[in-house]
Amino acid sequence: MNQSRTLSSLKWWKLPSPSTLKEHVELIAAISSGLLILFAWYGEHHWAPSVYVSLYVTAFFIGGFAKAKEGLEETIKEKSLNVELLMILAAIGSASIGYWTEGAILIFIFALSGALETYTMNKSHKEISSLMSLQPEEAFLITNSGYEWVPVKTLQIGDQILIKPGERVPADGRIVKGSSTLNESAITGESLPVSKSETGEVFAGTMNVDGSLVVSVTKPSNETLFQKIITMVQNAQSEKSPSQLFIERFESTYVKIVLAVVGLMLFLPHFLFGWSWMETIYRAMILLVVASPCALVASIMPATLSAISKGARHGILFKGGVHLEHLSHLKAIAFDKTGTLTKGEPEVTDFLPIEMNMEASILSVVSSIENESNHPLAQAIVKYAQKNDCSFSTVENVKDHSGMGVSGQYNNEEWKVGKADFVGKEAATSYKDNLAEVLASEGKTVIFVAKNEQVVALFALKDTVRKEAKEAISTLRSHGIYTIMLTGDNDRTAKAIAEEVGMDNYIAECMPDQKLQEIKTLKDHFSHVGMVGDGINDAPALAEADVGVAMGEGTDVALETADVVLMKNDLPKIGEATQVSRKMNKIIKQNIIFSITVIMLLIVSNFLQILDLPLGVIGHEGSTILVILNGLRLLK
């Protein structure tokens, strides 16, 4: 007992896994380098020079290896110099004239900055990747000897596969046997399932709701509509932050100028101003240190990572600084409807029995019949009955008529629940003075109830708008941002939802390629365009937009494609993200102006011979620390 308790209390002492060590190797190296520098600095006053110099050299190697390797590889690949090489040269230069501590500190600060950047980006990527759900990887192939599970990628055109209720369709094909209702919202954005029978087309990634299907494969796995959408996403080029592009363009030219000037400083002052050779080399090394644009490079990344971390704590995941920067410049934003502005699940909005005193009895029978169906509309009616504390009745001979409705018997009476054609079109359309037409004009789906061929009630259902959607749209419009809804639903439903939410405009019956084209059209009229969606059908538009925002409960393709992910499907967070973006851009501008000013002051002071190396390192590293701290203000 005591031994078990002791072992349990020591579980936290277990060694980290090799994968964890590999993931944090840069951070471990930077911290190790810092500790070695502290030991070496202490050893300068207590140990032999060979000991503390060895510690400094080890600190140089451990802390600077990753950055030196990165700098050399980038120089060879891009054929241009970079700040990593400049920092390494500055550190080696300091050490070459005996200033080991100053050189080591340069290495440590730069290594730590790079390690923190890598760690934060890996953490963000892991959080996003954990949300992804896998698409079907296997199919139930019909063979001469029976059935066999096979990898989807091995399916050939003409193969026949069995798709059971509740399974996702693994490949594009045509139905050769059976009928069912399919939820195609991932592809088309249509909120309600579609009924299909023989010769009907099915698409990979859609959900088979209530019937078994035998499907003949019409396309190989790499040519399905699902894969085409993914390919469109993969082909979308990623853009770098304008501020980052400025730094990168500036960096290459700046490094060349600094190295050229340092080269001249190594001998010209001796001949022009009569400086001693020691003073000339000393000033050249100071110039190499103070001119290194550490603070300038640190102007953007710490602020960006802080903003990313703040967003993550508040349920907003950013995939990079470019998306943060673009958010504050948005002039127009498009929204998908189903699952984004709406909940993506139908709810009963109206229940109208033929007589009010029959309300409870009709609801009891209907909910009992629908309880044996897994159709989304049936489940919505059951939930409605449960909310109204309705008791279930004993029904018999319940049958699911795919694409039409459900029938059953209660007290030897025949009950039908479904479309107008199923219960009797004439009786349905004339029920309560054509009330169904009025409800349909409001974007609602109408379900009729018939008892012994007489229509006795109707249900109106609707994919209800999220409570927070109106608030989010109102906030965006108050900031002067144009809002538009792009949906695969019909015009009547789209209009009703757009008016309820408060959209500036809407476009109905949009397929994925049409949504993509609409985003391109918006970009012709607005400088920065955003897109908010959750389905596979939204992925191309999310990729094309300057900023793509995905709902956290959306499909894996949408989550992978988007630049920003709203973890809790909280639309008002878009406004909050915009505020973070504006604050980040303001801090970045402050940092850039400050860092350039400090570098210029240090360079001038060095030429005037009023700056020594320790003060140069303090000014250089001090400005870098101040810039980083300013960026970290975003964490509040």
TrEMBL record:
Source species, domain of life: Bacteria
Cellular location(s): Cell membrane
Membrane topology, from the record: Multi-pass membrane protein
Record keywords, A-Z: ATP-binding, Cell membrane, Ion transport, Magnesium, Membrane, Metal-binding, Nucleotide-binding, Phosphoprotein, Translocase, Transmembrane, Transmembrane helix, Transport
Alphabetical list of Pfam families matching this protein: E1-E2_ATPase, Hydrolase
Family: Belongs to the cation transport ATPase (P-type) (TC 3.A.3) family. Type IB subfamily.
Name of the protein: ATPase
